[in-house]
Amino acid sequence: MKKKNSPPKILEIFLQSFLSPKDSESLLGDFNEMYGRISNERGVIRAFCWYFFHIIKLMPAYVESKIYWSVQMFKNYFKVAFRNLKKYKGYSFINIFGLATGLACSILVLLYVYNEISYDRFHEKADQIYRIYVTAKIDDRAIESLGTSAPLAKTLKDEYPEILETLRVSDYRETSSRKAIVHYDDNTFEENNAYAADPNFFDVFTFPLIKGNPKKVLAQPNTVVVTEATAQKYFGQNDPVGKILTIDGKECQITGIAENVPANSHFHFDFLISTRTYKWGNGTEWLSSRCLTYLVLAKEHSSESLEARFPEFVDKHLGAGGAKFHWSYKLQPLKDVHLHSNLKDEFEVNGNITYVYIFSIIAFLILIIASINFMNLTTAKYTSRIKEVGIRKVVGSTKEQLIKQFLSESILLSFISLFTALILVELLLRAFRNLLGLDFNINYFGNPFVIPCLAGLALLVGILSGSYPSFFLSSFKPVEILKTRNLPGVKSRSVLLRNWLIIFQFTVSALLIISIVVIYKQLRYIQNRNLGFEKEHVVVIKNIRLLKNQKEIFKDKLLQHPGIINASICSAVPSTHFNSWAIVPEGKTDDEWTTLRFCVCDHDYFNTLNIELVEGRFFSKDFGTDKSAAVLNQEAVKELGWKNPIGKKFKRGRNTHTVIGIIKDFHYESMHKKLQKMAMVLNSKSYKYFERYISVRVGSENIKNTLEYMNSVWKSFSPELPFDYSFLDQDLDNLYRSEEKTGNIFLLFAFIAVVIASLGLLGLVAFTVHKRTKEIGIRKILGANILNIVVLLVREFFILVVLSNFIAWPVGWYVMNKWLMNFAYKTNISIEVFLITGIFSLLIAIVTIGYQVIKAAYANPVDSLRYE
Amino acid sequence: MKGLTRKEELIMLSILNLQRNAYLIAITDHLSKITGKRVSLTSVHLPLSRLEKQGLIESEFGEATAVRGGRRKKIYKVTKIGFEELNEYKRITDMLWTNYSMLSVQKE
After folding, report:
1. What is the CATH number of the domain that holds B54?
2. Are strands A678-682 and A594-601 parallel, antiparallel or unpaired?
3. Which residue range(s) make up the domain with B44?
4. What DSSP line would sit under A690-723, residue for residue?
5. Does the beta-carbon distance from A33 to B74 stay under 8 Å?
6. In a domain, A423, yes or no
7. Which has the closest alpha carbon to A418: A96, A86, A109, A112?
8. How far is A76 from chain B (nearest CA, A)?
9. How far are the Cα atoms of A201, A216, A219, A267 from residue A273, in angstroms, in the given order?
10. B18 exposed, middle or buried (CB, 10 Å; 0-12, 13-18, 19+)?
């Protein structure tokens, strides 16, 4: 007999998996023997074929029986699950509604997160594009700015071969205004999104053109590319290519039409004008900030190695100026722009990675709270299922099968919740978008990942929330369950865990409540803080450049109306931008300059805003010399270190100003920033150019009428644009829009968390009360009054809520202190914040459990004891 | 009567014939020998497990040999009920044959 008469091991293992464990040993032995015999008689190959053939033959029957039986079992599981859902409608509702809300929250937040991280990914060269920013130290103040000088782009490309392209984009174009005034025929529009760009714009970025050659559209001076929507607005159905638009007084020919810029781009242009149109495009001033510079790096080169070579570049081209200001160039990947960049001179307000994290965490917590409800309710009402478990075990169900059963039950539930959640998402999406001020959508079929992701989410939640109950329920010994009428002694363990879960839920709720209280407290603090001027009843008129040299006449005309108390022509009002200019204080050399924020205004500025004077005087028409005077704020005096500031002089450019008065510091910027030194100068001839607003103090009565009057006066001067105005107090409020938004979102999240948590509590209380019906009856017979019963039932939950508050307070204090760091002026987190939170969560708990408890306490003991 | 197929009957008879060595391969070989046709292992195994379920035969583990990769044999034995069942079949078959032969004798 040959030695090699055993079949291959792999085939044996295969075969074994098909055989029932009872038979496998003897059958494998039989097969082994036959194999040996055949290989002896007819060769190994025949034996092998024979063996293999048998395995193949066994396969279909095996698979069929497996599937058949698992389908049968699942059919049974689902049947039981549905019956249970129907039998306990209240619990089912709480479970499904809670889970659905949690899922809806997570889906919305996932959408938001997906939208945030999708920014600028649509560019083909997205991985290679970097943005240059400047870090410098001016006046001991570190500055990180995106503004770069005009010659930088070309020089970089010439000197570094690894830089494939450089591109300049600017929203300033020629004037320092971001807005452009565009004429076509008799129509005039004010446009917010006009940018100047180098000819290779469409090489670097992937913005598809509908018409025009991407390489040539911006090659000539006085050419402009507009977006589809803009073309529609100006020309309707007509072909816009070749038409001439007048943009800020320059005639530009339309050479191309671009598709509308996707919402997830870090800037949105409507007009792109060739940089060759403007003189600054050829500028050579290295220390200026004219435009943003992008570059495309060759694939194999890293940005770090390029960055490391920039210092020598700065030395070579910026010389002493660069060294003095510690000037250096840094690179920022395009993909980081939206979430990680918040520098000076951003085109648009970017997103914030912190919010992405915070929202994700909160959504996750809410999902956990909802899953906990499921766990709690299932383990709490285990008595109703325990007989079922016993019977199943007795008739041969294994522990694994029971776990499978309860898991499939919770997965079924989470899928029902998923569909409910999708309906909720449809209903809430619009509101959520408005709340965030973002535009995104859910597209179920556009992206192949959406549906698997949703299913995966539901599966995860199902497993997460079903894991504990299924292990818990499957662990009982059937004898114990079926023998005694009393339930086995698992109570203490499950109750303990349940209590921890409730504590977790209420801790999260309390945390969210603390954040809301602090956010709104801070907002109220900011809005009620003494700003140093009167913000009410001030109308700010914009676009006054269009009045050309008739501003004074316009102002005088306004003042004729009895409802208008005062008016002032100025370069800036609080909430708008105050220019920052270099000055040389008295007694210092030209090199020791410093910067001041400036406001150019006329004599009436102080009375219009009611700014308080500390020392000296305001500008006055009685003094002809005031055109070279200046009024400083207290901060400026402090920083310049002047003991007797009145009469001191400083130089700004060619002008010398003498200080005539000191005003009290007033908050002209948002409270995020520390108040900075500033000066006011009169709108004399050399400063006329900066006049941008007319601020008007109106009487508190009949403001509508006054506004109509202002409108009619504006029209009588027939400027090209309609009357554009805003109220100062609203403009100031807008500075805190992002905080308000955060507050509102937190409010929504907290509301959801609290609702889900209290739903869970409600379910638990209902169950506890039900279980103790008899105990309450006996207690009442033995003389307990209603108060005793209420205390008995409430005490347990009360302790939990108080405990969770104690956990939430320090965490909330720490987190919210971090948040308050964003503000230079901030409220304190006082004890009342925590008291409010504590009282509020107790209140929620009382309202939630109150009805059940009182109903139980008032129940007639006869009813509860009779059913025995 | 449980209702046996012809094959089941033959298998049980083979088990009886094989005495103490009635395991799957031996039964299969025996069947091939007496019928003169090739019989496959699977076509014997299924009736065997059915018979065992019905309690007509029972099994126990025998010795392990190297030929079998160290695995034990499953040796079948006809139970008392099984034996009665077989006898019942034999009685009916015999009766029918006897009747037939008597009829043939009368004809002649």
Report:
1. 1.10.10.10
2. parallel
3. 6-107
4. G--EEEEEE-SS-HHHHHHHHHHHHHHT--SS--
5. no
6. no
7. A96
8. 26
9. 11, 13, 10, 15
10. middle
Q: Where are the alpha helices (DSSP H) in A325-398?
A: 337-340, 353-380, 383-394
Domain match, A656 and A780 both: no
What is residue A21's predicted lDDT score, i.e. its pLDDT?
A: 73
Least confident residue range of A321-325, A823-827, A854-858:
A321-325
Of A25, A31, A57, which has the smallest distance from its Cβ to B72's Cβ? Answer: A25
Q: Is A166 exposed, middle or buried (0-12, 13-18, 19+ CB in 10 A)?
A: buried
Task: Report the distance separating Cα A43 and Cα A39, nearest Å.
Answer: 4
Estimate to the nearest angstrom the gap between the alpha carbon of B65 and the chain centroid: 24
Supply the mean pLDDT for chain A. Answer: 85
* Both structure tokens of A524: 């109220």
pLDDT at B39: 86
Residue B1 lies in a domain: no
The helix (H) or strand (E) run that includes residue A727 is strand A725-727
B42, B45, B71 member nearest A29 (Cβ): B71
Query: pLDDT tens-digit profile of B42-83?
Result: 888 888 888 888 888 888 888 777 777 778 888 898 999 999
Q: What span, in angstroms and rounded, lies between the C-alpha atoms of A297 and A295?
A: 6
Run of H or E including A143 = strand A141-145
Most confident of A106-115, A752-761, A805-814: A805-814
Q: Given a cut of 90, is residue A810 above it in pLDDT?
A: yes
> How many domains in chain A?
4
Q: Answer whether A26 sits within 8 Å of B71, measured CB to CB.
A: yes
| CB pair distance less than 8 Å for A5 and B61 | no
The yes-or-no verdict on residue A1 having pLDDT over 50 is no
User: Which residues of chain B have a CB within 8 Å of the CB of A30?
Assistant: 23-25, 41, 68, 73
Mean pLDDT of A780-790: 87
Asked if ipTM goes beyond 0.85, one says no
SS3 content of chain B, % helix, strand, coil (to 5): 70, 15, 20
Provide the domain count of chain B: 1
Same structural domain for residues A155 and A267?
yes
